[in-house]
Each structure stands twice: as C-alpha cells, then as structure tokens.
Known about the structure:
Blueprint: E1 3-12, E2 17-19, H1 20-23, H2 31-38, E3 42-44, H3 51-66, E4 75-79, H4 90-98, E5 104-108, H5 114-127, E6 133-141, H6 151-154, E7 159-169, E8 173-181, E9 189-190, E10 214-215, H7 217-239, E11 246-251, H8 256-266, H9 277-280, H10 287-297, E12 306-313, E13 317-324
Parallel strand pairs: 4-5, 4-6, 11-12
Antiparallel strand pairs: 1-7, 2-3, 6-7, 8-13, 9-10, 12-13
Helix pairs in contact: 3-4, 7-8
Bound molecules: acetyl coenzyme *A.
Amino acid sequence: MIRTRVIATAAKAPEQVITNEDLSKIVDTSDEWISQRTGIKERHISAGENTSALVIDVAKQLLEKTEVPGESIDLIVVASVTPDYGTPSLACMVQKEIGAKNAVAFDVVAACSGFMFALSTADKYIKSGMFENAIVIGGETLSKIVDWTDRATCVLFGDGAGGAYVEKSQEAGVVHENLGSAGELYDILTEGYTNCSNAFNDIPAEIDSKWYVNMNGREVFKFATKNVVRSMKRVMEEAQVDRDEIKYIVPHQANVRIVEVVSKKLGIPMEKFYMNMERYGNTSSASIPMALNELNERGLLERGDKIMLSGFGGGMTWGTMLIEW
Ligand code: ACO
C-alpha cells in the first residue's frame, strides 16, 4: 500500500521573544492571568520578517536535511492565514527560493487546522500516484493581524513556521485521518475582513476592526473540546488503534486548558500530549509542525511509533491524522 511518510521536519521562529511581563507593559494584563488561562509564558514576535521569510527558511532546512535537490520537489503546499500577499501564494515564493522549478505550488487556508489540511492534500496527491514527494509547511506572522490594544486576543498568539518533507513509502506514514468543517460557526473566529470599498461606492477604504483577529473565546473553547475529542476518537476507531498504542499526540498549541479537557475526555494521560505553547503561544497553522519538529529533534520518536496530530481552527475547521513514524 502506498503511504505518505514524514522523512524530515523543520521549524523557524523569529529571534525576538516577548514575555507575558513585556505584554503587561502595553495592555492591562498579567503573567498570572495569561499563564493560568492559557499556559503561555512567552512568544516569538517578528522584528520585521514577513511570513515568507519564515516558510522559506523551513523549506531550505528541509532540503538540507534530506539532501533532496530543489528541482526534485513535486509539490509545495503552504498553509497560512497571514501570507505576505493576496497573490502570489507563499508556496510560489518558496518554489522560487529553493529552485523547485518542477513543482506545483499553492497555499491552503484552514486557519489553525491549516497544516492538517495541507498534509492531507499532499497525502492524496502522493497516494494517487501523481506525485512522489512534497514539502508541506504551516507559517504565520500573526503579530501583524493582532490588535495590540485588545488584551483578550493579543496575549494568545505568536509568529513562526514549521514543516515537513514527505514522500511515497511502502512501509510507514499516514495511516488514517479525519477532517471536518463547520461553516455555520464561521463568525466565532475571524480575521482579515476587507470591505468592498471601490471608486463607485461610498464605503470608506480604511481598515475596520473586523480586520484584526476577533474571537468569541468561550465558543471556540467549546467547539475545540467537542470536535477534537470526536475527531480523535473517530480516527482511532476507524483505524482500529487503541489509545494505549499512541505514543504521542501533537495537539494544536492554542491553550493548555483545552488539551486538559481533551486528555480527560479521551482518558489519555497529559504526558502523551506534546506541548510547547508555553514558549511559542498559538502560532495557528505553524503550531502543530513546530511542535512535531521539536518532538522529532529531541529524539523522542522511533520508527514504527504511532502518533496523532490534531488541530482545530477558524472556519471553523478541525483535522486529525494518525501517522506511523
Ligand atoms: N488579561 C487580564 N484580563 C483579561 C485578559 C487578559 N489578557 N483578557 C481578558 N481578560 C478579562 C476579561 O475582560 C474578563 O473580565 P471581566 O470578567 O471583568 O469582564 C475576564 O478576563 C474573563 O474573560 P473571558 O474572555 O471570559 O476569559 P476566559 O476565561 O474565557 O478566557 C480565553 C479567555 C483564554 C481566550 C478562553 O476563552 C479560551 O481559552 N478560549 C479558547 C480559545 C482559544 O484558545 N483561542 C486561541 C485562538 S483560536 C484558535 O487557535 C483556533
């Protein structure tokens, strides 16, 4: 059976670290409130580098690690809600910088579930036999779309990128997945709204508050705990894998309290959930691949290990993938 196997992972975050203490100097908040409510202590924030700089860095690292030349890459899929441009896609910018002149390159948008949707897309192209390999990246500079006067949102997010080089394998790889969307809830988490101002109407062109991240935190919390649990259960049932067989779960790094609820509802101990949100905050589509890369770089994964990646995000969307390492 053809499978899509993760061969290498990489991540990149901006150098600048902003602590909860730093944030308390610009909005009315405290380390205690942020830590207790979210588990986040600090985040990396762009000192000027845009999303393309981060995702290109990840792509270059992936080629270095695998020694695959750029021209041998078949597919580049980047997930982001904070690209540099409306067009070109980040994936095309990556293509240029790594000399992947034979690749098909495009972006996908599924907010914090973006990496799951991107990896699922690559998986289908590889399983169909159309492509042999792919670079899949999630990358964001959320700092540019956060309202830095809104304490309810600005404390949650960070910037970064993470990704994987995947290729066709007969041995291990993606075993099973569950993706889903709940468009009826689209307005509980939005960003980047642009109005339809033009030369022939009288709508003012300036950015309004809906351009920034807007979130009904409690509704997102409810959505996440319900759907992540359901999605992970479904993947384990359909793949006939017992929860004890799963070595690690890499959840979307939004909020430690969400992970605690998921852990309790599934009866899977917290030690199995790999988390680094304490140091990076919520980096949306980058959060799962950045955490996966850390898990990998720390040497915690061995061949044959079963791991589960599971995210939720704007749209609303969710996605879970069971991978045999
Ligand atoms: N510092 C201090 N006080 C704050 C802050 C802050 N940074 N932010 C909000 N508050 C205040 C509020 O003003 C409110 O005060 P009030 O009671 O006087 O009105 C109080 O804290 C409680 O606010 P809530 O929004 O009700 O706080 P809640 O306990 O729900 O926690 C949080 C907010 C952390 C966002 C929570 O709703 C949550 O975890 N939601 C899940 C959503 C999430 O994690 N989103 C991440 C991004 S989305 C994604 O990744 C898909």
